[in-house]
Structures are given as C-alpha cells and as structure tokens.
Amino acid sequence: MSFLDRFPGAAAYDEHRRQLAASRVWREQALPELVCRSAKPMQELRLSPTGRSQLR
Questions:
Q1: Looking at the record's lineage, which domain of life comes first (predicted)?
Q2: Does the reported pTM lie above 0.85?
C-alpha cells in the first residue's frame, strides 16, 4: 500500500503530521487498521527536489 502527497514545504508537512497526531480518529481507528492490514512495517520516505530539478 502506498500513499503519495505533496506539500509546499517542510513546515506544511510538519503541520500535517501534527494534525494527524492530534486526531483521535487517526490514532485510534485509521492508523491501527492500516498497520493491521500491512504485510510489512510502515516506512516513511521524504523526497524533495534537487537543485537541478524542474520542480523548483
């Protein structure tokens, strides 16, 4: 299972993570269900454009 998301910067990503951590539904229902259904431990990969990237 994969999820992709895009944020305008590190601060926006950090705020998103803070909001998830504050969400009771996320902590008590959604996240445990995702962990239960996953065959492997979850891993988080953070990608960011390089200096030569056209995404900048």
A1: Bacteria
A2: no
